[in-house]
TrEMBL record:
Its cofactor is FAD. Belongs to the class-I pyridine nucleotide-disulfide oxidoreductase family. It comes from Glaciibacter psychrotolerans. This is Dihydrolipoamide dehydrogenase. Its EC number is 1.8.1.4. It is an enzyme of class 1 (oxidoreductase). InterPro entries: Class-I_Pyr_Nuc-Dis_Oxidored (IPR050151), FAD/NAD-bd_sf (IPR036188), FAD/NAD-binding_dom (IPR023753), FAD/NAD-linked_Rdtase_dimer_sf (IPR016156), Pyr_nuc-diS_OxRdtase (IPR001100), Pyr_nucl-diS_OxRdtase_dimer (IPR004099).
Length: 488
């Protein structure tokens, strides 16, 4: 170790941690990351990257099977060993050596061990051998400890050795059968991945799939999973788990039926990693999500202890549990930490340099099912709750020339939510094969508050899925300069 004090100390070593430290260093500060596991965090080794590598095998085969001429070339199923080997490569074989080289090149120091607050701007790090190091932050401490899978208290479940997303994305064998408890993004994506790799998958959802999105998203994904051979059970819960004499897991459901499976994956939500961070030393309870303002400063606790030095970035603040949003927050936080340390102007107005305004109304997300779900901004329900006067426009993506070329029997749907007062987009949702690449255009339109009058001049290429923008605008009718929404 070099010095025992740094301008910024970051607890956690995932992508949010790397980004906040990098921006602070670029602003002229010194920074240290404290990490007890792999530098790079959940996304690199147990979430985004390995999960999408597993999913891609099945979706690539499905895409080929929808195109005569290609379908005949992929009559056999997936090559599981090759698929898992590629996943291992994408996850860097669970080695963070590349990330360590990047830290060194960025001028960021690293200390291995478990970090916890032990006072104002003070962090105590416990190494694996039990030794401790006490560090002092000159300006700020950033908590970037992320979240962990939430295990429900179902009798017998813990004894059945269930998978969480970590085990599912790092498994070295595909089980003959897999039961997934949950109906959110992880559940839907892992059902897609493992059915595509040849497992017999049963999905058990308490209400339905992807219920936080527009209703048609969950409906289309449910239909597609069922068509691919997945058993989707909705409006039912798991009440008990037990081991059979053959070593399998038997799940008893609330309707009295049983599901017998080789492995169980629990995907019922996330919990913040805040239980052993020393938060009590500054008057904050452990185990809770950490509330922050738009510059990512932690709110609450003892006012005389928190001050303007403690930040919470990424999953741990509960604002948007997505890697790209955590990085976005980290860029804003790293810049504002440097600005406050250097005594320069803080730009904390909405959409300013030092705030995470997009967390409130412009969060993009892709669910990598087959079909994909790409969404950004407000759903119809969100917009109505917020009190907007809206107009909702829908379009069947199968009517596009681009989808006709892309796949036979293309199934997909698009929706935009328009603020009728300002004639700007509030939200957009696309469901269909390859719709993920439509999403950034919608994100730009929402963040930039681009008037629909101007969007008419953004000409989509033909034949592509982007033509949906023209069709949605035609459905809306070209707004007149005086605001009268009549067709020209």
């Amino acid at each position: 170790m070099q010095p025992q004090n740094y301008d910024l100390i970051v607890i956690g070593g995932g992508s949010s941690a790397e980004n906040v430290a990098d921006r602070a260093v670029q602003g002229g500060l010194t920074a240290l990351i404290v990490e007890s596991e792999l530098v790079g965090g959940e996304c690199s080794y147990w979430a985004c990257m390995p999960s999408k590598a597993l999913i891609r095998v099945g979706t690539a085969l499905s895409a080929a099977r929808r195109v005569p001429g290609a379908a005949e070339a992929v009559q056999t199923g997936p090559h599981v060993a090759a698929a898992l080997s590629r996943r291992d490569t994408i996850a860097n074989a669970w080695s963070d050596s590349g990330q360590l080289r990047w830290l060194a090149s960025a001028g960021i120091d690293l200390l291995r061990g478990h970090g916890r607050l032990s006072g104002v701007r003070e962090v105590t790090v416990t190494a694996k051998d039990g030794s401790t190091t006490v560090l002092t932050a000159n300006h700020a401490v950033a908590l970037c400890t992320g979240s962990a899978a939430l295990l429900p208290s179902i009798p017998g479940l813990a004894e059945s050795a269930p998978w969480t997303s970590r085990e599912a994305t790092s498994a070295h064998q595909v089980p003959a059968s897999l039961a997934i408890i949950g109906g959110g993004v992880v559940a839907a994506e892992m059902a897609t991945a493992y059915s595509g790799l040849g497992a017999s998958v049963t999905l058990i959802a308490r209400s339905g799939l992807l219920t936080r999105f527009e209703p048609f998203a969950g409906e289309l994904v449910t239909n597609a999973l069922r068509e691919s051979g997945v058993t989707v059970l909705t409006d039912v819960t798991t009440t008990q788990a037990s081991r059979t004499s053959a070593g399998e897991v038997q799940l008893r459901l609330s309707d009295g039926s049983d599901v017998t499976t080789t492995k169980v994956l629990v995907a019922t939500g996330r919990a913040p990693r805040t239980t052993d961070l020393g938060l009590e030393t500054i008057g904050l309870p452990g185990g809770d999500w950490l509330g922050v303002d738009d510059t990512l400063l932690v709110q609450g606790g003892s006012p005389d202890l928190t001050g303007a030095w403690l930040y919470a970035i990424g999953d741990v603040n509960g604002r948007a549990l997505l890697t790209h949003q955590g990085k976005y927050q980290a860029r804003a936080a790293g810049d504002v930490i440097a600005a406050r340390a250097n005594g320069t102007r803080v730009d904390d107005a909405p959409w300013g340099t030092h705030v995470a305004t997009a967390d409130h109304s412009a969060v993009p997300q892709v669910t990598f099912t087959d079909p994909e779900v790409a969404s950004v901004g407000l759903t119809v329900a969100d917009a109505e709750i917020a009190g907007y006067r809206i107009r909702v426009l829908d379009y069947d993506l199968s009517w596009l020339g681009g989808s006709t070329v892309l796949a036979d029997g293309y199934v997909g749907h698009a929706r935009i939510v328009v603020d009728e007062e300002r004639h700007v987009l509030l939200g957009a949702t696309f469901v269909g094969q390859d719709v993920a690449e439509l999403l950034h255009a919608a994100t730009i339109a929402i963040v930039g508050e681009v008037p629909l009058e101007r969007l008419w001049h953004a000409v989509p290429s033909y034949p592509t899925l982007s033509e949906v923008w023209l069709r949605l605008l035609e459905e809306y009718g070209r707004p007149m300069p005086d605001g009268d929404n009549g067709l020209r």
